[in-house]
């Protein structure tokens, strides 16, 4: 997931369907997120960047830094100040839905059904050639390209369904704080635990008024229930965020060598390591853990209040904003120390 200086935001989820996933090296979903943000200044342009790259280079390859192969197709939630799109892919084939209103989420399943606003030119023909669609009944992308029962899609206990329910509960009154609480929800599976723990979380506020800044909140740490959503605003001359940047290994990085993934370097940044130690305290020392959690929640609340003030008053001190995120990281590190 990520955002750029134009207020374009992209989230990415793994999906699986009837089509096999390419195990050969190609573009990962994470590559497509990065390239979409690098090259587009609107949500629809980001959509076009991704589908063009998909056509030219394909998607596939191992998504884990491990000798164990883990591959998937990709879905994307793409938004800017004015509009939002859902893009779902199966190999080189894809369907896109423009979000017209209300709430919309993606998770680990296809979710575009009969409302398709853009599509791969051979999407339906490919489905017919595989016997997935008879060409007669209304074309339903999720039902055709996967095994999802679209009639029950919002009534099951799936992660997608639970996310849909949580968003609908607050439809029309979703604030950044409510969105953070939804991302922290463990019962729904939104906040994942175990081998596929939620490794980072992001909430963005994209005002429709162009004079107001887009505000992005990033944790930079796993498990949002025990993390601080720290504010970030794109302004010129932001210094490198060293304490939340993973170390680099240049040509010695094992992912750049053949065969891949023969060793696994420590990619944790400074905040990640300190947060990891704090998480152990939260689990093993109830009193101290409670105090730590209270302090980081107070820090987050303070930062949210500051950002609300920026949006209400339309007043932005660029000199202060330059260090907005890094200053919050320092305050969080101080709590952990």
Automatic annotation (TrEMBL):
<comment type="similarity">
    <text>Belongs to the peptidase C69 family. Secernin subfamily.</text>
</comment>
<dbReference type="Pfam" id="PF03577">
    <property type="entry name" value="Peptidase_C69"/>
</dbReference>
<protein>
    <submittedName>
        <fullName>Secernin-3</fullName>
    </submittedName>
</protein>
<dbReference type="InterPro" id="IPR005322">
    <property type="entry name" value="Peptidase_C69"/>
</dbReference>
